[in-house]
Structure formats: C-alpha cells, structure tokens
Amino acid sequence: MVFLCLTPICEANERVNFNRDIRPLLSTHCFACHGPDASIRKAELRLDVRESALNKNAIVPGKPSASGIINRIEHSHPDKRMPPKPETPLTSGEKATLRSWVVEGAQYSTHWAWVLPRRAPAPPVKNSSWPINGIDYFILARLEREGLKPSSEANRRTLIRRLSFDLTGLPPTSKQVDKFIADLSNNAFDMLVDSLLASPHFGERMAQHWLDLARYADSDGYHDDTTRSMWPYRDYVIKSFNDNKPFDAFTREQIAGDQIRNGTLEQKVGSAFHRNGPTSSEGGANPEEYRVKYAADRVNTTATVWLGVTLQCAECHDHKFDPFTQREYYQFFAFFDQVPGNHLFRGLSAPPSIEVPSPEQTAELMKLDAEVVALEVQSKINTDEATQKQLTETKKRRDAYRGALPKLRIMQDTVKRTPTNILIRGDFSRLGDPVEPGIPVFLPPLPAAETPRLALAKWLVDPANPLPARVVVNRFWAMMFGTGIVKTAEDFGSQGEWPSHPKLLDWLAVEFVESGWDVKHLLKCIVSSAAYRQSSAVGESLRQHDPENRLLARGARFRFPAETVRDNALFVSGLLAKRLGGPSVKPYQPAGLWMEMSYGNSQGKSYKQDHGESLYRRGLYTVWKRSVLFPAFAAFDAPNREECTVRRPRTNTPLQAFVLLNDATFVESARVFAERVLREGGNNFESQIGFAMEIALARPPSSSERSVLQSLLTDMFMHYRRKPEEAQNIIATGEWPISKDLDPVTLAAWTSVAQAILNLDEMQTKE
User: Fold this and answer.
1) Contacts of the segment 727-736: beta carbons below 8 A, 24+ positions apart
2) For site-directed labelling of 412, which of 10, 261, 497, 604 has its Cα 20 to 30 A away?
3) What is the SS3 assignment for 323?
4) DSSP letter string over 350-403?
C-alpha cells in the first residue's frame, strides 16, 4: 500500500500535527515492523502506541538526540539506519518533521477518521462575495491561504451540460439548454437542479456507481462463470435513488432487509446486496471453503462501503497499520457466515431466493389464483370430469406462470446458528477460538436489535459511528469533482490520504446525517456551491501549483465512465432507449468472444446478441459477465466486479480511440446521427453543422471547427463518390433501418463528420 499525500498547508509557526504530518510517515515507513500486528513486530516496539515508544526510549519528548527513532533514521551507517532497505527512503524534510515533533513533545492523537465528526463554523474569508453556501467558505479559506483565487463561473451552456451528466449521466436536450440560457431569474439554477434530481434517469446514474460497490454482475464469476439472475436488485437500487430513500434506511435494507420486522418485498430485495458476490458451482470444490469465501467477501465489502477501511488485511493476522485484530475480523465475519443452502449451487437463482414479480405479473398471478380458488369451490359442488379437467389445466397454467417469474438470491440466516471460529492464517480448515458477532472495540457499541445482522445494519448508520457518513459523502463528492476530499476513498485508515479539506468533510458528514440521510439534499448542496460552478479552464501557473485540482481553484474536468461514453453517443444519435429496468441485454460485441474466453463447454459460452430496442439500452443494463467483460466497457476501465470497486481508474489508451471509431454501436450511432442532421438540421452546411454541434456539445461550432468539418465533408463526399461500395458498407453497420430516401454517398460522408464529432475529446469529457 502506498501513502498518497496532498501537501498540507501549515500556518506560520504552526506546531506539527500528529495525524496530518507524523502518522502517515510512521504508517508508511515504520508500522509494518513496529505497528499493531504482534506476529511480525520487531524488538517488541510499537510506534503506534505512545506508551510503548516512551518505554523503549524510542521517543524522549523534547530530546531528539536521546530518542532512538531520531538516532536510527539519521544514522550514518546504512545497516543501522531505519527503515532498513526502504523502497522510498525518508526525505530530509520528513526527517526534519519527525525531529520537530519530538522537540515539541511528541504528542499523539487519535486517528482523525476514528473521531466523531463535528460541524465546524465556516472559516473567515477575505472575498466574502464569492461563497454561495457553507461549502464555499472552506474551499475559499484554503485557496486564500495558498495565495490563490477561484476561477470565474462557467458559462451557462457548460453548467447545464455538467449538471445533466453529473445528475442523470446523460446530456441535456437542446430544448433544455435553450430554456436554461433564456431563464435569467434568480432561481433558474435551483430549478434546473431540482428538475434533474427529479428525473427518472437520476436513479440510473446513481445506481451505476452503487453497482460497482455492490459487485453486481449477471454471472457467478468462479469456475465457468455461469449466468445468474440478479437484475431485480439493480432495479431496486435505481428505484431507491429515484425515490430518495433515506440512506440509513437503504443501508439497513442492504445489510439486513430480510430481517426487518414485517419487512416488505422491496426490503427483502435490498438484502441481495450480499448475494451479489462471486460464487462457484464447480463439482470438485469444497463447499465449506466457498462458504468461507462468500462470508469473507461480505465482510470486506461492508467494511469498504460503509467504513472505508481495509478490514480484509486482518483476515490472516492483526492489521499492520490500523487497530483491527484478527479476532475482530472474525467477530465481524460472524454476522455474515450464516446463509444456508448449497454453496456450490448451479443455476440462475441459488437459494435462498424469492420471487420478484412486477406489478403486472403480480396482478396476473392474483387473477390465476382467483380462477383456481373459484374452480376448487365449483369442483366440490359439481364433480363432473370437465370441471376437474379445467381445474387441473388452470393450476398447471398458474404454476407455469409462477415458475417463469424472476427470482432473486437474497440473504437469510440458518435457523440454528452455525458456530464461527477464528481461521488460523485465514485457512478454512484450521479452526481457532470460537467467536460471537461483534465490531472493533475502539468504535461505538452495537445497538439493540432482534438479530445480530440487523444490529450491525443499525450500527452502520448510527450517528455515533464516526466513519459511515464521512465515507459516503466523500464518495458523492468524488462523483461530482472526480476525486474525493479523501483521495483514497476506499481507505480512511493510517495508509489513506489526509483529507484536502478535513473540516469541510466533517461539515458535509454532519449535514448529511442531520438532513435525515437525504441523498438529493446533499447532492444539491454540493452542485449549488460556487466551487462546483467554476470554469474548468486552467492556466499553466495553476496547473503547476495544483495539477490534480485538489484545492478546487477551478471546476472539475475528467473523462466520463465507460457506460456514459456509450450512452452519450446513443443519446446524441437519437437511438437511446430510455425505458427503465428489466432483464440485462446483450448489444453488439465481437463475434465469438465468449467462446474464446469462457471456460469449458458451459451453456454460458454462447453470446446470443439481442435485437431491436435491447441494442440501444443504457450501459447500466448491459449484461455484466465477470470473465468476459463487455469489451467497449473494458477498454474504458470498467471493473469486472469480482470485488467491491470504489474508484475506477482513468486511463488514456489507443484502444479507446479504436473502440470509438470502429465499435458497431459507435459507428451506427454516427450514421443515425448523420441522418438526424440531414433531416432536422436545415438545407445547408452552415445550419446543419450548427445543429450537429448543438445536439452533441450544447454549443455552436467555432470558425475553425466549422472549416475543418466542412473540409472533411468535402473530402469524404469525393471519396465515397469514387467508391460507392464503401459508402454502402459504412451506412450498413448496425441493425437500425437505413433511410431509403437519403443518398448513400451523402449519408456516408456525413457519417464521417458525425464520427469526428462523436470522437472529440469534449464528447467523452466532463467540462
């Protein structure tokens, strides 16, 4: 693990801060040998505990020359210098910081993330006219300490496009852009935000991120990666965000929806969160080994999603850097190792599972049940063969209908509790001491509840728990700004990064809890800030000062996630199917890919491409096969979801350009976009190219863009007129019907122009 540091700002003559300045150094360079893990500790010296360091004279407060730690890091002999043979040696500045800390008394303090967040008052700022809400005071105060000024507000076209992508994952329509530009009222921005938060596509945008955390997929993962049916859980997530379900209620359903008293079907569906993990159906596998794997996956995922800690590091031994013991790991494990059933089940819906009918299916099932009841009553009165035959056939029809209903794997506990033991070195076959369900002792105690897992669910959103609110708001911040206030959003522990704005993070966490865990309220608070509204344009001086924009002296600019890149092209072309929910779909992908990549001769090796509307659904609904990830998504850094993913990487590779230029969906989108331009854009190039750029980028073209695109159109028209067969080939890509009333050469030439627009960096980037 690598410690990432945003250089902290210290006031003049400010004392060294243990959490900000010292703990990261000790964690990176010392805790591996002198930290919490007793099994590998050297010289019985703990540098994470002040008393141990004092007892061993590693630290003598006020006397650096008498302190062993200072003598060893400054030792002239390489064999006696600490840390031994480091990959990244301590710098002279870091050594000086450690020396200053000892001079100042070597005070320790509790790690910032373990302390309950408090709402700090807004700090004073010089430019009091800039802040719009509380967020801005914290941002501006930091900028002013750095000698920086915030950027000007982005223009309205940029703002509506930014907001639309951030809150719905889709671009705005031309009508929405025109309306926002024309509305000069004081509440125009607020009204726009409210309309986007109310959009049904808001839930899809939020679910896209949550499904990474939930390791949602349409296949099992292990062995031959067989198909599973989990899509009702995905639809539940979309609905929950659209309904603005309070995040604490959402959490309780994810962890223990099956155990909520008088729980609804929807709450039970929520518990499928912990049935999303990879499973195996290999005939020769040991079921106990996989039972343990599944429980460990639930532990690690829960700790990551709600606590932001690397609890998985304590599966085999005490955590090397944070105060989690191996015993506590298995106490946490005891919440999740009680699921009954065949742990090597092969099939769509491994038990325990439930029927998840749609409202229409529920109505039809009730109708069939009523018919059966009526015929049963009639059969008691009239015993002729015809009534009995009708009853038998109706029952068969009802049972067949019920058998075809979607089923979903959910959580459930065994009636009689299965004992939980510490596993020596994490080995399922080596049982250590028995343990009961519990949580790390340095965190608040569990609340009362009917079951252990329900108690855990309540504990995860207990306002006394210092971690969950911070962890969640940090991820929402990262969704809007590209990077969290804590960059290491998956790790708030000693190896994680110090927050760029610690008091702002706490302010947001308290705001979230006090709002009733209101997700839409929190997001509106973030996007309404002056910090969010800044232009993303950046000069070289600011780029050099803050290359990652951690200080937020400008608006965020980063590439869209994989699904959004594809959704955007489909939307601009007019192809995007906007229906919500339903089974996962199989759009175009290279032929034979599953045959090449899948294991053995399983039924799942065959990829049967869908047709019609299913080709144009949002990426959220694309079938997610763990062993053979949809290639257009893999190229743009989507995870295979074998495990919980908090941060997707953002790479820039030639393969991405290859996908945008050659993948069937993008070529077809360009052709249909070209048809749209020719039909709706007017009768001359000037109006047509203006229409195209407004649709794609919510702005008119520049004079240079207009000139380049006109030259491209002329060149491609001449090319396709010489080679009409190539024109026919490019416009024949995809299954969307080709317009018979458009000249193929003209359409092919405009398809090339549309491809150029769809391949602009601006099309794939949040500005």
Assistant:
1) 730/667, 730/671, 731/671, 733/664, 733/667, 733/668, 733/671, 734/588, 734/615, 734/664, 734/665, 734/667, 734/668, 734/671, 734/672, 735/611, 735/612, 735/615, 735/668, 736/575, 736/668, 736/671, 736/672
2) 604
3) coil
4) PSSEEE---HHHHHHHHHHHHHHHHHHHHHHH---HHHHHHHHHHHHHHHHHHH
Q: Helix/strand/coil (H, E, C) string of 597-652? A: HCCCCCHHHCCCCCCHHHHHCCHHHECCCCCCCCHHHHHCCCCCCCCCCCCCCCCC
Contacts of residues 10-14 at CB distance under 8 Å and 24 or more positions apart, as own/partner, are 11/145
pLDDT tens, residue by residue, 288-297: 999 999 999 9
**What mean pLDDT is predicted for residues 709-717?**
98
Determine the distance from the C-alpha atom of residue 468 to the mean position of all C-alpha atoms in its chain, rounded to a whole number: 15
Whole-number average pLDDT of the chain = 94
Number of C-alpha atoms within 13 angstroms, CB side, residue 757?
A: 36
Residue 261 corresponds to which tokens in the numbers above?
């008293």
Decide if 337 contacts 418 (C-beta within 8 A): yes
Per DSSP, helices labelled H in 412-501 are 452-459, 468-481
Spatial separation of the C-alpha atoms in residues 188 and 75, rounded to whole Å: 64
Measure the CA–CA gap between 326 and 311, rounded to whole angstroms: 9
Look at the block and give the residue holding tokens 């706490």. 506
pLDDT surpassing 90 at residue 550: yes
3-class secondary structure, 252: helix
Three-state SS at 695: helix
Determine the Cα–Cα distance for residues 175 and 479; give it in Å rounded to an integer: 26
pLDDT tens for 406-455 read: 899 999 999 999 999 999 999 999 999 999 999 999 999 999 999 999 99
Q: Phi first, then psi: what are they for 544, rounded to 5°?
A: -70, -40
Contacts of 296 by beta carbon, 8 Å cutoff, 6+ apart: 312, 315, 333, 426
Rounded Cα distance between 431 and 39, Å, is: 18
Rounded mean pLDDT of 535-554? 96
Q: Tell me the two tokens of residue 311.
A: 């609890």
Q: What is the CA angle 248-253-255, rounded to 5?
A: 95
* Contact between 336 and 274 (Cβ < 8 Å): yes
As a whole-number percent, the residues of the chain with pLDDT over 70 amount to 97
Q: How many CB atoms lie within 10 A of CB 302?
A: 23
- Token duo for residue 149: 């000024």
Chain centroid to CA 241: 14
Provide DSSP, 72-114.
HHT-SSTTTSSSSS-SSPPPHHHHHHHHHHHHTT------GGG
pLDDT single digits (tens) 186-196: 999 999 999 99
